[in-house]
Amino acid sequence: MTIAVTELFRHPIKGHGREALDSVTLEAGKTMPGDRVWAIANQMCKVAADKPEWAVPANWSRGSKCPGLMAINAKLDEETGTVLLSHFAQGEITVRPDDPADAQRLVDWTAPLMPEGQMTSHFVVRAPGRGMTDAPYPSISINTHNSLRALSQAAGTKLSPLRWRGNIWLEAEGPWQEFEWIGKTIRIGTVELAVREPILRCTATMANPDTGARDVDTLKTLRDTWDHQDFGVYAEVAKGGEIGIGDTAELI
């Protein structure tokens, strides 16, 4: 069976919406263009607003603490630096996150989605030269539908790929095959991706991406069935190029 690219996604504002792509050009040593360009600091954030730097996920507002954020869709206009966000309960908003006034509008727009008693959002930062991915290196996340189907069967319900906020989705040869790629390189077209490690998942994946409500304990299902809490793998771009839906992938 051929390994093939089925979906591509980026997430312009970390934890605040996903955008489907038909193709993307990747550069060596960089995150996906337009992915996690901005992040929204919570009240416990240790990063200074005027000196943004990469920081661990606990500094940012995200779906693990605020599941309602998981129901946001996004669309980035790279020419204007604006992002269109939509949510079934909040409607739509178009913001330029680099503009202080728009950044505040964005924080205000998300406020009703924050659970009572949880950390609130405070300000928006632009990631310094790379996407604000969870990994301390410029990562690309790869997931397979084969593993998702196995997990869906174990959970007793069909799980959406959107729960996992991945960049590249593949149709592979079997469930959990991606863990066998760790330490190896996968080629998609002219792109070469060095697979680094499994992705340890958090409670964000428990939220339904249509409703923003937690409805499946994905983590318990992973632990009870496979004795781990991993789904998907992180990779780094070793050689750049363009990839698109339908492209085939192979280990090299």
Detailed description of the structure:
The structure is a single chain. The chain has 252 residues and is mainly β. It has 2 domains: 145 residues, PK beta-barrel domain-like (M1 Pyruvate Kinase, Domain 3, Beta Barrel); 89 residues, no CATH class. The chain has 3 helices and 15 strands. It has a 7-stranded mixed β-barrel with strand order 1-10-9-13-12-11-15. Strand 11 and strand 12 form a beta hairpin. The longest helix has 11 residues. The protein starts with a strand and ends with a strand. 39% of the residues are buried.
> Would you tell me the overall average pLDDT?
96
Structural class: mainly beta
Q: How many E strands?
A: 15
CATH class of the largest domain: Mainly Beta
Can you tell me the CATH superfamily of the largest domain? PK beta-barrel domain-like
Distance between the terminal alpha carbons, to the nearest Å? 16 Å
Indicate the CATH architecture of the largest domain.
Beta Barrel
> Could you estimate the helical fraction of the residues in percent?
10-25%
Question: What order do the helices and strands follow?
Answer: EEEEEEEHEEHEEEHEEE
Whole-number total of structural domains: 2
Any idea of the CATH topology of the largest domain?
A: M1 Pyruvate Kinase, Domain 3
Proportion in β-strands? 25-35%
